[in-house]
Amino acid sequence: MTTSLIALLAAAFEARASLLPTLHAENTDAYRLFHGSVEGRPGLTIDRYGELLVIQSFHSPLQVTELDAIDAFYAERLPGLVTIWNDRSQVNSRIGNALLPTQLDAAMLPRVMHEIDVSYRIQGRHAGQDPWLFLDLRAARRRVMQLSAGKSVLNLFAYTCGVGTAAAKAGAEFVINVDFAETSLAVGKENAQLNHLAHRPRFIKSDAFAAMRQFAGIGQPERVRGKRMPPFPKIEARQFDLVFLDPPRYAKSPFGVVDLVNDYSSVFKPAWLCVAEGGAMIACNNVAEVGRDVWIDQLQRSAAKAGRPVREFEWILPEADFPSHDGQPPLKTVLLRL
Asked: What is the spatial distance between Cα 71 and Cα 84, in angstroms, rounded to a whole number?
């Protein structure tokens, strides 16, 4: 089994032979080295995050011999990386494997990675489950940087504010990151400090629906159907040259429901109303079972119903370290122009 796994790793590394030097040349030291769902081992991903080699197993734990073989394989090709294994085969993908004290210290050590000459804070392990930067969104962050100079940018469901940081680094004049989690915004603030930004981004801790409605000029009532809503920050109405929308698969709050399978329009419409005339939105849908053509049709119909039809759209595909069999990867990202 170990021999066959190493053969898969070797094929994946060879497939990236032209990509990695290109990424290194633009000061990118974070990328997917093995995309198991496509490259022969579903449930296994191997990523480089700066100084870290992060191995994650989702379907079943790795055997010790497999882990040692993976470590040795990459030590020969990318020497000096610190290996961290996160077994996420438990319920809700929670990390279930203990590390030795020295390994845990290495995993918990704050570090810095780089992408397109932007610096980001990372850790091999932290209080949450997911990495602090999703590597398959690199293509989207790259497109944001191409569009942001001199513009205003709204980053919704911002998580650790990677998109907002990239926009500010590329010369955006005004950036707002919105997320309900203070811990995620704290990482975003660190990201801003790591980079020499001409304009420091703003960070708003808020439910996205409450923020979007206020930016769009709809307003967020303090009472709905006679019930007082949870506290939310008061925000002045304004529209943005570029809005980035990357909601989770499902989330429910008193302000609204995010459901990317059954009702993407409920979150898309208020976000679309935040786009200035002549501006653009980059929207994401990370649910594999939602078809690309069905989704874009939903977005276009929702935009038309809002009286703001989509003028044109452009698909943004993940870069070559995230291959797909049919050219339609699970993460769907589209640039919509108003």
From this structure: 9
Q: Are 150 and 173 in contact (CB under 8 A)?
A: yes
Residue whose C-alpha is closest to residue 267's, from 325, 207, 320: 207
- What's the confidence (pLDDT) of residue 88? 95
Lowest mean pLDDT among 31-45, 81-95, 280-294: 81-95
Of 202, 148, 156, 157, nearest to 175 by C-alpha is 202
Contact 268, 239 (CB under 8 A): no
Orientation angle between helical segments 265-272 and 292-305, nearest 10 degrees: 50
Return the beta strands (E) in the chain as ranges: 30-35, 44-49, 52-57, 82-87, 111-115, 118-122, 152-156, 174-179, 202-205, 223-224, 227-228, 240-245, 250-253, 256-259, 275-285, 312-315, 332-337
For the stretch 140-197, pLDDT in tens is 999 999 999 999 999 999 999 999 999 999 999 999 999 999 999 999 999 999 998 9
Banded pLDDT at 1 (limits 50, 70, 90): low
> Structural domains in the chain?
2-109 (3.30.750.80), 135-337 (3.40.50.150)
56 HSE (CA, 13 A, CB side): 22
Give percent of the chain above pLDDT 70: 100
β-bridge pairing 52-57 and 111-115? unpaired
In this structure, what are the phi and psi dihedrals at residue 61, rounded to the nearest 5 degrees?
-65, 155
pLDDT value of position 93: 84
Which letter does DSSP use for residue 263 in this model?
B
Write the burial class of residue 206 (CB in 10 Å: 0-12 exposed, 13-18 middle, 19+ buried). Answer: buried
